[in-house]
């Protein structure tokens, strides 16, 4: 709080900054409670193969059912959780949820793969990979049912030991994806040296692919480059079928976006797969 001090002194905070600061403190407190009180939920966004035309899996995305404010989206709290370190606990919770869900799917013979986001802060924690493996083995989930998504900055920071753990997971069947490609450095050396199965093209690349010739040329070049190093490509935030047609022609393997399903809860996802031609699922986009 910016208190009035003696004349001529600097204020550390102005009112706007003070408000923003208080919002962060409040979010952090409320988020700690959210984990304990079961206010967090995992939503699933379908991923569609452009080769087979079938939904082949989903990305797990956090949702927060705030008791007063209602549904809160990750961009309103993940950055705060990243800064405070709370993301490590939240990330563990997400992994636990995904493990339990996939344990049920596996028992039922429903073999869709689920991707989840891993924050660099989670990698800092001792034995992250040990606990991850334990969570999935506790529920008898084969690692071939999961995919870990890392952003480029996480990949850049990762130590050799972390890279070795990622390689080991991959050798045991897990898929590894690089998220948000095209926003950061888009480091090409990293693409070659990292153990990777798929690269996810950032929405900003997809955005103008229809309307802008230059954007199209750039995406085409990136797609060829990624395929050249042997990775599959997932295009994110595909919002209409014209974009999907263009991306298919360019060689993109998989699409994810509102055109094929917004993030939805597990029940809706299962219903969507069971009655694939059925009515649109209720989304929690
Ligand atoms: P992301 O991993 O890149 O996830 C994709 C985001 O794009 C999701 O936003 C998704 O809802 C959104 N999206 C999907 N289709 C479309 C579309 O057609 N158009 C547009 N404009 N957007 C689309 P969401 O769910 O709000 O998540 C935002 C970010 O929050 C994620 O980006 C990820 O970085 C982070 N996040 C979400 N869940 C987790 C989590 O469990 N752990 C960590 N560490 N981060 C998470
Ligand atoms: Mg992601
Ligand atoms: Mg992304
Ligand atoms: Mg992202």
TrEMBL record:
Residues 24-277 form the EAL domain. Keywords: Membrane, Transmembrane, Transmembrane helix. This is EAL domain-containing protein. The lineage of its organism: Bacteria, Pseudomonadati, Pseudomonadota, Alphaproteobacteria, Sphingomonadales.
């Amino acid at each position: 709080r910016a208190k009035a001090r003696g004349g001529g002194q600097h204020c550390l905070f102005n009112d706007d900054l003070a408000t923003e600061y208080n919002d962060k403190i409040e979010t952090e407190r409320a988020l700690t409670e959210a984990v304990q009180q079961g206010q967090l939920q995992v939503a699933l966004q379908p991923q569609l193969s452009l080769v087979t035309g079938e939904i082949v899996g989903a990305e797990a995305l956090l949702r927060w059912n705030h008791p007063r404010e209602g549904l809160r989206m990750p961009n309103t709290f993940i950055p705060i959780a990243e800064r405070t370190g709370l993301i490590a606990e939240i990330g563990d919770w997400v992994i636990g949820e995904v493990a339990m869900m996939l344990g049920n799917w596996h028992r039922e013979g429903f073999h869709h793969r689920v991707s989840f986001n891993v924050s660099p802060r989670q990698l800092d924690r001792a034995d992250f990979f040990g606990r991850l493996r334990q969570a999935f083995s506790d529920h008898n989930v084969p690692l071939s049912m999961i995919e870990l998504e890392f952003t480029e900055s996480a990949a850049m920071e990762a130590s050799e030991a972390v890279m070795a753990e990622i390689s080991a997971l991959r050798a045991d069947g897990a898929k590894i994806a690089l998220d948000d490609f095209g926003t950061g450095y888009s480091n090409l050396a990293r693409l070659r040296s990292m153990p990777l199965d798929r690269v996810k093209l950032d929405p900003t690349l997809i955005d103008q692919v229809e309307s802008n010739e230059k954007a199209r040329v750039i995406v085409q070049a990136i797609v060829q480059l990624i395929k050249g190093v042997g990775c599959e490509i997932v295009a994110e935030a595909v919002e209409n079928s014209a974009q999907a047609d263009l991306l298919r022609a360019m060689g993109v393997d998989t699409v994810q976006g509102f055109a094929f399903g917004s993030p939805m809860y597990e029940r809706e996802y299962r219903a969507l797969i069971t009655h694939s031609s059925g009515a649109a699922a209720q989304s929690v986009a």
